[in-house]
Amino acid sequence: MGNREDLRAGAKQCLIEKGYSRTTARDIANASGVSLAGIGYHFKSKEALMNEALFEVMQEWGDELEATLAADVRADATPLERFEAAWDRVVESFEKLRPLWVTQFELLGQIDHVPEVRAQLVRAIGEARLGLAELFEGVAQGTDPERERLTGTVYQAMLTGFLSQWLLDPDSALSGREVVAALRMIVNGSGSGSGGTSI
């Protein structure tokens, strides 16, 4: 590889090992074997290099997550059985792709200061919503935009919330079966609340 590619590879390594904000230009130089001056020559700034590395890593992680979540589900599975199987794969992805999730949470605290990263995350979130609607609801992308928007947004909120709990306490992660049970309790109004639509 040339110096530019070496620097990008070094930045990706640092991003995974140290995170976005804790990586210094010297860290990248050491990881890549390229001088500090090379960062300015090839990328103008450490931030520009880190952003380029981040976008590349997010694409790679996104492809890996898609493959992880696209495992076969029985063709005759009910919607709740589909959900249960898909959710179990989501939880498995938490550990497998932990650097992705940690980095994304880290970046959320900095989006007001890095508009180019914010724009990239907005695009990624939009794509994720479509993918989640397809994964959990079986909605082929582009066939029902309103259903994709509504269900994808709710599933994304669930995933982000469960993920934040898992990062703090992995033992708290609910299985697919437990999430389905909780949804039944909420929708059916078990307990002191009023009844609702059965699922």
Describe this entry's structure for a reader:
- It is a single chain.
- The chain is mainly alpha-helical.
- The protein is built from nine helices and no strands.
- It has helices at residues 3-18, 25-32, 36-43, 46-69, 79-96, 98-108, 115-137, 145-168, 176-188.
- Helix 7 crosses helix 8 (145-168).
- What's the helix-strand series? HHHHHHHHH
The total of beta strands comes to 0
Given the C-alpha coordinates, what overall shape results?
elongated
Which percent band covers the strand fraction? under 5%
Q: How helical, in percent, are the residues? A: over 70%
State mean pLDDT (0 to 100 scale): 85
Indicate the structural class.
Answer: mainly alpha
Please give the count of helices: 9
- Largest pleated sheet: none
- Our measurement of the CA-to-CA distance between the termini, rounded to an integer number of angstroms, reads 55 Å
Low-confidence stretches: none
User: What does the radius of gyration come to?
Assistant: 20 Å
Summarize the structure.
The protein is mainly alpha-helical and 199 residues long. The chain contains 9 helices and no strands. The chain is 73% helix and 0% strand.
Set down the secondary structure blueprint:
Elements: H1 3-18, H2 25-32, H3 36-43, H4 46-69, H5 79-96, H6 98-108, H7 115-137, H8 145-168, H9 176-188
Observed structural traits:
single chain; 199 residues; elongated
